[in-house]
Amino acid sequence: MSHKSTIEATTALNYENSVPPLNQAVGLQEVLTAGKDRLFAVVRDSREEVLMAALRNPSLDSQHLLTLLKRQGLGSVITAIYTGKRLIEDYSVKFALVAHPDTPSHIAQTLLPLLYIFDLLKLCQIPGVSADIRLAAERKIVQQIPTQPLGNKLTLARRGTAGILDALLREGVQNVLEICLDNPHLKEGSLHQFLASSHATAEAVSTVARNSCWKSRPNIRLAILKNPRTPLIWYTIFLPGLPGTTVRDLLLSPRLTPAQKEMVRQVRANSYT
Fold first, then answer.
1. What's the CA gap between 8 and 166, in Å, rounded?
2. What is the C-alpha to C-alpha distance for residues 219 and 65, in angstroms, rounded to an integer?
3. Burial group, residue 109, by CB count within 10 angstroms (0-12, 13-18, 19+)
4. Of 50, 51, 42, 45, which is closest to residue 15 (Cα–Cα)?
5. Of 63, 111, 113, 117, residue with least CA distance to 85
6. Has this prediction a pTM greater than 0.85?
7. DSSP class of 20
8. What is the pLDDT of residues 32-85, one digit of tens each?
9. What are the Cα distances from residue 151, in Å, to 173, 175, 181?
10. Is the dihedral of CA 127, 131, 133, 135 positive or negative?
């Protein structure tokens, strides 16, 4: 948030906390003509007709709307904000609408493509956001990954969801892979699938094999050993102690290179001498 935005947000908060609650007997004409300061009290009113009238007040701005959108149970007020095009010109209001649990799905889906990639990521992580909006936000991020600069991909690797990490792995970027491996949302199935793919280079395989979180998992070790690009050193480290049936299966695997199969034979022979 910029310095200017911080000042505006602080000012709005001060107004919100200092303006006394609206008198229950207040007339709608007063709401329609209330000044900016008084509007912070107006948007805290629980009556729908008062809030609807406030939306027609020309002094109502984005800070009032953001204060209003902190509340739940807004019902048709949400739809009225969306249909009043002037009210959603501000980017922060668009985001608040998408994130609001009362926003109808069709409205949230319409606004979703207008959001920046890291705000889409926030939607994946905010409690209360509906499952369909989280999934739609994740899909938008995945669609944008190929065109993102490396810095953004690294941030997504650090903070992304399981679906985002899956897409990042498929790109096979070494620096990104290293960060993905330390993200607690990464699923073993996604990593296993990556190791079985053509994206898993020798360097990538070694990165996984060295990772303290993943190197001890039996299924990951086996996926490493079945990759034709796996450096031979990992056979000497991972093969000892494997069940004999697993070693025999490796020797029968059509994916292993002749050099890898010879290493399996040598380690197997040394293990039984």
1. 39
2. 52
3. middle
4. 42
5. 111
6. no
7. P
8. 998 999 999 999 988 899 999 999 999 999 999 999 999 999 989 999 999 988
9. 12, 10, 17
10. positive
